[in-house]
Amino acid sequence: MTTYHAPLNDIRFALYDVLRADEMFSRLGYEHATRDVLDAVLDEAARFTEVVLAPLNAVGDRHGCRYDKDSGDVTTPPGFKAAFDRFVEGGWTGLTASPDLGGQGLPHTMGVPLNEMVNAANLAWGNFPLLSHSAIDALTQHGEPWQHDAFLKPLVEGRWTGTMCLTEPHCGTDLGLLRTRAEPADDGSYAITGTKIFITAGEHDLVENIVHLVLAKLPDAPPGPKGISLFVVPKFKVDRDGNLGGRNALRCGAIEHKMGIKGSATCVMNFDGAQGYLVGQPHRGLQAMFTMMNTARLGVGLQGLGLSDRAYQNALRYARERLQSRALSGAKFPDKPADPLIVHPDVRRMLLTIKSLTEGSRLLALHAATLVDVAEHAADPGERERADVLVSFLTPIAKACQTEWGVENTYHALQCFGGHGYIAEHGMEQLARDARITTLYEGTTGIQALDLIGRKTAATQGAGLKLFLAEVEAFCDEYEHRAGIAEFVAPLRDKATEWAALTRSILTRATDVPEELGAASYDYLFYSGYVALAYWWARSVAAAEASDRPEAFKDAKRETARFYYARILPRTRMHAAAMESGASSLMALPAEAFDA
Amino acid sequence: MTTYHAPLNDIRFALYDVLRADEMFSRLGYEHATRDVLDAVLDEAARFTEVVLAPLNAVGDRHGCRYDKDSGDVTTPPGFKAAFDRFVEGGWTGLTASPDLGGQGLPHTMGVPLNEMVNAANLAWGNFPLLSHSAIDALTQHGEPWQHDAFLKPLVEGRWTGTMCLTEPHCGTDLGLLRTRAEPADDGSYAITGTKIFITAGEHDLVENIVHLVLAKLPDAPPGPKGISLFVVPKFKVDRDGNLGGRNALRCGAIEHKMGIKGSATCVMNFDGAQGYLVGQPHRGLQAMFTMMNTARLGVGLQGLGLSDRAYQNALRYARERLQSRALSGAKFPDKPADPLIVHPDVRRMLLTIKSLTEGSRLLALHAATLVDVAEHAADPGERERADVLVSFLTPIAKACQTEWGVENTYHALQCFGGHGYIAEHGMEQLARDARITTLYEGTTGIQALDLIGRKTAATQGAGLKLFLAEVEAFCDEYEHRAGIAEFVAPLRDKATEWAALTRSILTRATDVPEELGAASYDYLFYSGYVALAYWWARSVAAAEASDRPEAFKDAKRETARFYYARILPRTRMHAAAMESGASSLMALPAEAFDA
Fold first, then answer.
1. pLDDT, tens digit, for every residue of A168-205?
2. Three-class SS state of B215
3. Is B363 within a domain?
4. Are A40 and A164 within one domain?
5. For B259-309, where are the E strands, in sequence order?
6. Residues B128 and B257 grouped into a single domain
7. Cα separation of A426 and A51, whole Å?
8. From the list B177, B571, B581, which residue is nearest A337 (CB)?
9. CB of A325 within 8 Å of any CB in chain B?
10. What is the pLDDT of residue A292?
């Protein structure tokens, strides 16, 4: 069994010392988001996730969700409903939602530590409330007033949950191919018919109603992605006055047997003329979908972060407790039969890899969330616009890197346990299995990479990158002569310069050969992620030095940053070489010769 | 469900065209190992593994092994015993064993394609016969004549299977800590008492007897690894005339619930004064253990290879069938609703990564096995000695790289399936779960890395590396001006030079700071693996060009080699930078500050 302790110390460091988020909240007009309130929220979130959710993690894996063929009902694992009720009672579902809707009106940024903790404690459980946020965002931005009134409050209050019904058996990424149909009815509603798969929390027993946001095509839809419309389709019908009616014509047809997140219900949803309402304009569903996706992508990134942190804590504990062999330089604990694993350099390599990627990712995630707050609440429209461009640029990096690092980190943590890591009772293998979904759903890593280099870079002439590099340059200018920081500034500046040059090189090549974008995309994304983390590590050292934290904490930040620069940042060399090698090494082999 | 087709075409290319193994076998005196015989063996192995073993792979995962608490018996999954019987009838258990023992007397090298196919078809099943080879090797080299007579023939014939009982609950890597005791009895046997864990095939229903090779300590044992002795302890007693007696005092106490290889029985074995016999000299068990370990390590490397190949085949099939989105340069199949995944550069990146690592690994593995044959059978003692040094050097590289690449390759292959890869019915997630054990057992990757840089490099002043580099240099000299090959020769020579320089640099630093060895070990191992594969890819292109194979095959080898040099070999830059950064970035942080 793995344990979990919320990393409040590092969360507070990231929020207050590095990002100065409390000052920012005040500037943005979040008057009630005082340091006292924020601290109380963090403490309560830690208590809830450690005490209520974390012990249910292995339970969920062992029991899984159960599907009843006759009723189409899904039963969640023991304890999941009671935990959800407490989550709702605590007001957590509406933490960052508007008080008008029953929310607590805290900054979006505060959703990041909450969700990191929820995911670390129990990823599978966390998927039940997760997509409500996406549904709320889509309905808020694109829904009619009566839809706001009817759907938003119960979603915010956690009486209902939401889903995103995008994928069909023959199409995931390429939604232009979808076949689900929406026929107009006389009363202004639509009859939705089709099959959706991989619907997270599509059916379950935690709440009284489930609000599906469904992509479908109207009878007059143009072909391809421009013919997609968005509909809100509740499990129990909801009329225009918000009254709950009878069961809608939709049903869970099966749940998937998966590698992990077994406590999470991944549903096949069959819509058989179900009553739904158009959200937004006809054929403009893709736009509404991106609203949902961006929220969900940042949320899935936090799954990688949460799992990484839990994996680290348990690997560290084991590395300190497990006695095995002597240090190469001689016994460190001669009174014990052997030294603990943590004396061994290669075990330290694995631990420091996890630690540096995890604490760095925490800043990547929190920074992106502060930009969402700025984009919504800054007084200056230019500042709002810049924040929006920058968070759009950072979203695919955050999603893909945090999830791939989650896979890597849970890998290393399991490896620290040796053979014991492979055994179910230690719980490390569950973390690795659970992590594996995160690079697949809400857009695979390859899709994030294309989004970054295509829509977020090529299509904007690198607007997002320029904003980020300007921040990096400003930091470098400020700290280049500061004792204790300067050692990071020079290599960081070099990487920033190289990042810009690589970007120009790819975009130039892509004007002639469109495949150059796709061929560079994966390496460009990770290159970007590693340089971004180098920036956050340099800033972390600077912030730690400037703080009144204990020397051990400052040492840990400095030495972890040094490790990161010495042993992780060189991954950029591999990525730079790969993307500079161009598309031909990928495209030359004919498809039929792959097994010649 | 995944499918499997034995890659006979590439196996034959590697064996005959690249390694010219058939000529070598003849030179070594394997007169009956003619091309016809070898081809017939390959064809039969392909048939057996494709038809009998492959369909049982998912069955084994679903059913797992069952343990009966009352009897201590273990029941293997449905079909496993029938398949084992056919394996035995086919003479596969003795393929490379001496005819004196009932074996077929084929070269050790031929065990590699057999085991690659077995592992690809059904890794969990393959673990039942696997460790018999280790037991045979240990008994052959260290056992008394009566032990040869009593144990070897039934092991070779597959009537019995073997195990390696090393690990205990508190010690795996550090066997000096073990607590299992051996008390001398009046009749020259020993009473073995203790608990061993993680015993692969420790108990099962496939054969009539199980021969445990058990590490234990004699009453007068000096402390630490120098006090370990090896004992042979059968499940049913065997007297000095080879007669089977009653049940020995040992019992399976439990089987582990694991992440994967669920069809393989991983047993807790309790020895309660069980009758055993000393193998080799008292307190010299570690030496005998290394005999077993080296065989087993090369065998586990083949598990990574087999899984990689099966993963590739299925990912390739899916990438050709699944229609999703259009190529960035415009529709390639305008008559279809979308293009197949394989048109997309990033999907090709994943496929070519698997293909290049897998075909390269096949040569790494086969080459190592040819060296075992040379070390045993070459007429010239100097040649035998050199082969032994070289295979010792290559063994940790082969084990660690092939298994880590197995993890990576099954990762990419699953990723090619998108969300479907996470669903059990597609079978890709089983391959990923099964692969995860291979970097843990028979010495973790970290232990292989220490073995390579310590015992196999520092302790021998780089003797193995020098032999390998001499081969590389000879190849470079021969081909540096050859059209179609020269493009690989220059970068290969650079890497060979850098490899030697990095080695000198580490060994020099390690004379003052012993931790430098451990700190460089992981990156040194992978650096070595990637350069070794660069050599095998250059040689593959040369061999393909010189052959009369179809142009499509030659194209595939050349373009895959170009991909490897452009996009995989640059990983050496990251590893070189990391190992050159020295030990301080790993050792500076005090153990207690890892969660400061």
1. 999 988 888 999 999 999 999 999 999 999 999 999 99
2. strand
3. yes
4. no
5. 266-279
6. no
7. 19
8. B177
9. yes
10. 81
**Contact with chain A for residue B512, Cβ under 8 A:** no
Beta strands A266-279 and A190-200 are: antiparallel
pLDDT tens profile A545-570? 999 999 999 999 999 999 999 999 99
Within this chain, do residues A451 and A572 fall inside the same structural domain, yes or no?
Answer: yes
Per-residue 3-state assignment (H helix, E strand, C coil) for A420-440: HHHEHHHCHHHHHHHHCCCCC
Determine, for residues B444 and A414 on separate chains, whether the beta-carbon distance falls below 8 Å. Answer: no
Q: Are residues A278 and A215 in the same domain?
A: yes
CB contacts under 8 A, A 537-596 vs B, are 550, 552-553, 555-556, 559-560, 562-563, 566-567, 570-571, 573-574, 577-578, 581-596
Structural domain ending residue among the three candidates A241, A266, A284? A284
Alpha-carbon distance A72 to A198, whole Å?
16
Q: Which of A442, A551, A559, A592 is catalytic?
A: A442
Q: What CATH number did the domain enclosing B531 receive?
A: 1.20.140.10
Contact: A198, B320; criterion CB under 8 Å: no
Q: In this complex, which of B170, B578, B589 lies closest to A567 when CB atoms are compared?
A: B578
Q: Are B212 and B324 in the same domain?
A: no
Which domain, by its residues, includes A563? 444-587
Q: Which residues in chain B are contacts of A593 at CB distance < 8 A?
A: 552-553, 555-556, 559
Residues of B with Cβ-Cβ distance to A329 under 8 angstroms: 513-515
Spatial separation of the C-alpha atoms in residues B431 and B434, rounded to whole Å = 5
Find the largest Cα–Cα distance for chain B.
Answer: 84
Q: What is the pLDDT of residue B575?
A: 98
Residues of A in contact with B177 (CB under 8 A): 323-324, 337-338
Is ipTM over 0.90?
A: yes
Q: Which residues in chain B (163-182) have CB-CB distances under 8 A to chain A?
A: 167, 170-174, 176-177
* B71: CB partners within 8 A, 6+ apart: none
B254 close to A (CB below 8 A): no
Check CB contact under 8 Å for B589 and A327: no
| CA proximity to A438, closest of A564, A261, A223 | A261
State the total domains in chain B.
3
Note if B442 is an active site residue: yes
Nearest CA in chain B to A550: B596
Residue A72 · residue A252 · CB < 8 Å: yes
Same domain, B105 and B250: no
Residue to test with chain A: of B179, B196, B325, most A Cβ within 10 A: B325
Q: Which of A346, A554, A571 would best serve as a mutation to test chain B binding (most B beta carbons within 10 A)?
A: A346
User: Does residue A370 form part of some domain?
Assistant: no
Given a contact cutoff of 8 angstroms between Cβ atoms, the answer to whether A26 and A374 are in contact is no
The helix/strand/coil state of B269 is strand
Residues A265-310: tens digit of each pLDDT: 999 999 999 999 999 999 999 888 887 888 899 999 999 999 999 9
Taking the Cβ of residue B445 and every Cβ of chain A, the question of whether any pair is shorter than 8 Å is answered with yes
- The DSSP string of B491-558 is HHHHHHHHHHHHHHHHHHHHHH-THHHHHHHHHHHHHHHHHHHHHHHHHHHHHHHHS---HHHHHHHH
Side-chain-side CA neighbours of residue A71 (13 Å): 9
User: Would strands B160-165 and A250-255 be described as parallel, antiparallel, or unpaired?
Assistant: unpaired
Q: Are residues B278 and B409 in the same domain?
A: no
Mind listing the pLDDT tens digit for each residue in B473-496? Answer: 999 999 999 999 999 999 999 999
Q: Does residue B142 belong to the interface with chain A, where contact is any CB pair within 8 Å?
A: no
At how many degrees (to 10) do helices B515-546 and B463-479 cross? 30
A234: in domain: yes
Q: Is the pLDDT of residue B287 over 90?
A: no
CATH code for the domain of A179 = 2.40.110.20
Q: Which of A90, A113, A142 is the last residue of a domain?
A: A142
Please check whether residues B223 and B180 belong to one and the same domain: yes
